[in-house]
Design goal:
- This protein has 1 helix and 26 strands.
- It is mainly β.
- Strand 12 and strand 13 form a beta hairpin.
- It starts with a helix and ends with a strand.
Length: 358
């Protein structure tokens, strides 16, 4: 009899457990549904992230705000010391013409002012996935009377392959670099050319930087970069650039001519597979390294060749560093890497190099 009673008790307990589990599961499902409808509230170690009132928009998707359409072009590569992934956005008019390109960091807003009034575009959260359905932003866009956001007045937005022409020069944007430095900045990789005189100079400029270049006819231009957008797609990689004639002194060269070399020096800005040649040896650029070390620098990967293209050595040389190789007859082959450009495309991966022999 005792075994029968215990069996009934076990059966009753099992039924109660199943019922409780069903109620708990239903509560979980109901909670998930409510969060999704409201814009979600996700718990993290730092607290709750609430995106109530925001809508999820996938890359390529858009939302209406008054007479404007706000399109999510891409989610940016990591930027800044906090490694944020900004939403890269476009504002279009009723005819689909792009009026403004902008970046909005999660937790911030951007007020655009245009011919049909002002709108405030706010981003709560971004998802920097690799597949398209995993790249989205929770955002909202509404008409507003707030003051417009004007981070780069007087600057032109240039996409990859685009060009800004001013006076006798053109500044073309070859690429936006991968993250560089401890602040995870994304320099604009530029090429300055002069009308009817060909190439002038290659530049890799951080956002916020300005420098003065000198052309072949001794004209000087101040070139400035206000902001870069490090997207993954072509229309989401752009820079806000300005170039104006100036009487300012030419910016100091970051590539010193004198690097303790007693003889002549030979310099250049070779791209991948190209070399700086002098009569004794060649320094060929094999590649630009991925980010390395605490400073997230991008060293030049070099091959050292003799004058007959025989490989003597290979080296990884940090920007601002001198490499030395013991050559023939007690001579020392020296290579100074001034600067590297860690672009994604081949013509945007280059290094400024000076070589010589002691």
């Amino acid at each position: 009899m005792k075994m029968t009673i215990d069996g009934k008790m076990v059966a009753i307990a099992a039924v109660l457990l199943i019922a409780l589990a069903g109620v708990f599961t239903a509560q979980l499902v109901a909670g998930s549904t409510d969060a999704e409808k409201s814009g979600s509230t996700a718990s993290t170690d730092a607290g709750a992230i609430s995106c109530n009132g925001f809508s999820k928009v996938n890359v390529g998707g858009s939302m209406q705000a008054g007479a404007y359409t706000v399109k999510l072009s891409d989610i940016a590569q990591e930027t800044g010391s906090n490694k944020a992934h900004n939403a890269i956005l476009e504002v279009l008019n009723a005819n689909g013409v792009v009026l403004e390109k902008m970046q909005v960091m999660p937790g911030t807003a951007y007020v655009y002012s245009g011919p049909s009034g002002r709108i405030a575009v706010s981003v709560c959260q971004t998802a920097p996935g690799y597949t398209l359905n995993a790249k989205w932003a929770k955002m909202k866009a509404v008409p507003t009377n707030s003051s417009a956001t004007t981070p780069c007045p007087g600057f032109s937005t240039i996409e990859i392959g685009g060009m800004l022409s001013v006076g006798g020069i053109s500044v073309s944007l070859d690429d936006i670099a991968v993250s560089t430095g401890a602040q995870n900045a994304h320099p604009a990789i530029l090429k300055v050319t002069q009308t009817n005189n060909g190439f002038v100079q290659k530049l890799s400029m951080l956002p916020g930087a300005s420098l003065t270049v000198l052309t072949a006819n001794n004209s000087k231009y101040l070139i400035s970069v206000c902001q870069t957008a490090p997207g993954y797609t072509m229309n989401a990689k752009w820079a806000k650039i300005k170039a104006i004639p100036t009487g300012n002194p030419v910016s100091p060269d970051s590539c010193p001519a004198n690097i303790n070399i007693t003889g002549a020096t030979y310099g250049g800005s070779p791209e991948i597979g190209q070399s700086v040649d002098n009569p004794v040896f060649k320094a060929r650029l094999s590649d630009i390294s991925v980010g390395a070390g605490a400073q997230n620098s991008h060293p030049a990967v070099l091959d050292i060749l003799d004058s007959n293209d025989n490989l003597l050595d290979s080296a990884v040389v940090e920007p601002g560093t001198l490499y030395a190789y013991n050559g023939m007859n007690g001579s020392i082959y020296k290579v100074f890497v001034c600067q590297t450009a860690p672009g994604m495309t081949l013509n945007a991966k280059w290094a400024r190099i000076v070589t010589g022999v002691n």
